[in-house]
Amino acid sequence: MTEAAAIDNVISIEELSLDYGKLNVLHSLSLAIPRGKITVLAGANGCGKSTLLRAIRRLHKPSKGHILLEELNLHSLGEKALARKIGLLTQSPSAPEDMTVQELVRLGRYPHQTLLQPWSAGDAEAIEQAMAGTGVGHLRDRRLGSLSGGQLQRAWIAMVLAQETDIICLDEPVNHLDLAHQLECLELVYRLKEQFGRTVVLVLHDLNLAARYGDRLVFLRGGKIVATGAPADLVTEERVAEVFGVQVRIITDPVHGRPLCIPLRLAEKSLA
Q: Could you tell me which residue ranges the ABC transporter domain spans (predicted)?
């Protein structure tokens, strides 16, 4: 790796393997995450996307290999130090329904607080900015149980933003959202990159959304990386058939200029 490439990559994953008991989930996987870009992990169900994302946030311990965060071994950092660098929103997060939006967002400030300084003006400012950036400021006193799916998802993202991390990991943030709220959520993610220079690692099932919003795609299959690259290079009819087992027609989105995937039928190998 050249010195320039090392500077551009905020996370380097080297020969990573990870097991669930006797089941090997990730196999000698190596990947570099570029700084200030949206990297989308994509692939069929069970390919290891969410496991890899959680490993980046050190929720899973690898059986082999390591992850470097700006040349520091991830496992050399204390939990609070790591939480100040990487924020994670998992699939279907939960919190008490009677908690308010503001109380949820406040949880994002935990990594920055100490016994001598449990709360500060900086914490209050970070919370206000996070709620303003996600458009939930007017919902601050609403109970979580009273929110729509889109509102609730924005509140969770606001909590992650309040951590003020340079790296944000989101696991299927548009899952269970309707089309309008999917676009609302991903436009917010895009603004985080464009306006604030955040590095985003995103798990998405929808290949068209991945191609539209991702700067870089990572295709996984069976716990291994099949290919990485720009959407225009990766989203081809042959590659989609290989990774997802579906025959498709690829056209260029006339509005955004990104690849657009039109499913036709299961690939022959999937029908066998």
A: 11-247
